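Why do we care about 3D structure at all? Because function follows from shape, and shape follows, mostly, from sequence. That is the central idea of this module. The next example makes it concrete: a single protein chain, its amino acid sequence, and then its structure expressed as tokens.
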Amino acid sequence: MSLSVITTADFAHLNGKQKAAILMLAVGRDQASKILKFLHEDEIRDISIAMAGLGLVKAEIVEAVCNEFTRNFESSEGLVGTYETTEELLRKALPEDQVEKIMDEIRGPAGRTMWDKLGNVQEAVLANYLRNEYSQTAAVILTRLQPAHAARVLALLPEDYATDVMMRILHMETVQREVLDSVEATLRSEFISTLGRSAKRDSYELLAEVFNNFDRKTETRLMDSMDKRNHDDMEKVKALMFTFEDIKRLPHEALMRVVAEVDREKLPLALKGASETVRKMFLQCMSKRAGSILLEEIRALGPVRVKDADAAQVEIVTVIKNMANAGEIDLAENGGNDEIIP
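And the structure:
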């Protein structure tokens, strides 16, 4: 059987695996064996398959591959690894769908830490995993998720178990070694390195945000359960919560700013399930014509699911809390202590 021949004209069409295979052959068996020891089993297999299919490689191709490899190390500033250069390299070596999968895993959604990536896991999948884990392990994981995601996961857990997890969140101190071992069994090792560096969030504030993201039924169910377990703890959480009905606490000027920022398409649905007091407060922040249009939009909605109205309200509460965090409004303006300290 005749061997295929790789010539100079073929260089531009060589993929990364083939170039790696040529480089391995060029450096010789002894050096190649040392390099292979540092590669993953899948990488060794891929290079081996490429090597077996090379056939006869012309000397000029070997030289071109070696020169390209050398040029990558010629810069006086060394190598620069970025998301862009990584993606470019992968696209030359792997199929498109595999590159997308790897880059999605590297980048994650909004953040760059591996805990941010855990936020990509569907709540049903994560809840099913947590059901079989210690409640302390679940607490460690949920404290590193966004409150909205943590709320959706907790809502899918059995009531007693979810209550136990939330109690552990409230009273969590240093993370014990055995908890880390349990987490490490499923999550990547680099996740663990972020545990010691991440700033500890106030547990009551965290759980208050989680409750803000529950639907009404879940909120009532778990709030009652936690209140029975520890009334004082639940009262502290309640004091830190800000719900849609708490908009009544906002002064007119602050609510005017909120109305200017919220999604107008969500407002009718959110107000559909609001009290008359809150609805009037929003209307007072609008012109008569705009208020009439809003009321007509609310009436036009007809019957709506409580779940949908709750979701719209949560979005508006999120806008309010973001504005408060940015210092644009003060959530305690009407709810603070008015006493003066001399």
